[in-house]
Amino acid sequence: MSFAFVFPGQGSQSVGMLGALGGAFEVVRATFAEASAVLGFDLWRLVSEGPQEALNATERTQPAMLAAGVATWRAWRTQGGASPAVLSGHSLGEFTALVCGESLDFRAALELVRFRGQAMQEAVPAGTGAMAAILGLTDEAVEAACREAAQGAVVEAANFNSPGQVVIAGERAAVERAIEAAKARGAKRAVVLPVSVPSHTSLMRGAGERLGERLRALEVRRPRIGYVSAVDAAAHSEPDDIRDVLVRQISSPVRWPQTLRAVSAGAVAQVIECGPGKVLTGLNRRIERRADLSFLALEDPASIATALTATKGR
Asked: Is omega for the bond preceding 301 within 30 degrees of 0, making it cis?
């Protein structure tokens, strides 16, 4: 039997995240110090003290989440944690997976995701984009609501997170129309998210082109651990293929149910979330209810100890 690691993306950040791990494992603070030297500001102070508005700025959230995932991974490894059979990530988490799989250099990836956040923010004028979570509808019903609401504007399914939970994104007025169309189709809830960048929609294609230019100049290696992208729930290993999928990712929906099933196939007995919070673990439990598959999240020293015991000998 083996296990898989998955890495969270934007939305899992919070002021105070990794506080317990940072107090217990020197490598966590060292990872943030390394990131701070690259970024030119005290990243640990930002995630420890906030303010939340500053941490939520896309160009800061992305390197903060990357550093948090890498720091947790390093803590796992220094405690004797084995390598998983496969890695994946939700949105920004894919970059973390590629760093931990040694496809991307950590320092270079920090600069890359900061640029990614800036490019995404600049792709759509501030205040004109929106995202919303639609709860209680099928994927097909949400997509139909978006088509009805578009009316020449952009509103699309951006994150297929779990059965009955789809995030839509696009131009603000079109998103508002899609919310009403989803409610008319029987949606249990529709929640506008505190995000102005309509990630994973066609509005991000320009940002993807800019990211592609950066990626062409960046060293990308074959991952040492299998990597599955949430763009297509498929494995990718060739450097040029990885560059291509990272460009497509920024304007393509996240397909998390298919991705989870791909990474948990075969002999995988645990799927372990590596990074702050338990957002993916909650989604995973709603997606896959196999009796022989368990889900863990590395949040603090105790949860690392539990995961070490669960994966011992694998």
From this structure: no
Residue 313 confidence class, pLDDT cut points 50, 70, 90: low
Q: State how far the Cα of 91 lies from the Cα of 198, in Å rounded to an integer.
A: 13
Provide the CB-side half-sphere exposure for 75 (13 A, CA). 32
> Tokens for 109?
């990836």
Contact 167, 131 (CB under 8 A): yes
> For helices 106-123 and 26-39, what crossing angle results, to 10°?
60
Instruction: Sort residue 245 into left (φ over 0), alpha (ψ -120 to 50) or beta.
Output: alpha
The one-letter amino acid at 166: V
Active site residue 91: yes
User: Position 110: which residue type?
Assistant: L
pTM check: above 0.70: yes
Active-site residue flag, 36:
no
Contact indicator for 93, 275 with CB cutoff of 8 Å? yes
Q: Which residues pair with 133 in a beta bridge?
A: 167, 191
Per-residue model confidence as pLDDT tens digits over 238-257? 999 999 999 999 999 999 99
In single-letter form, the type of residue at position 4 comes to A
- Residue of 243, 204, 65 whose CA lies nearest to 121: 204
Point out the catalytic residue in the list 12, 103, 199, 200. 200
My answer on whether omega of the bond before 257 falls inside 30° of 0, hence cis, is no
205 by Cβ neighbours in 10 Å (0-12 / 13-18 / 19+) ranks as middle
Spatial neighbors of 273 by CB under 8 A, at least 6 apart, are: 5, 6, 7, 8, 279, 280, 281, 284, 295, 296, 297, 298
Return all residues near 107 (Cβ < 8 A) that are at least 6 apart: 34, 38
Residues facing residue 170 across a β-bridge: 130, 155
Q: Do the beta carbons of residue 241 and residue 228 sit within 8 Å?
A: no
Give residue-wise pLDDT tens across range 33-57.
Answer: 999 999 999 999 999 999 999 998 8
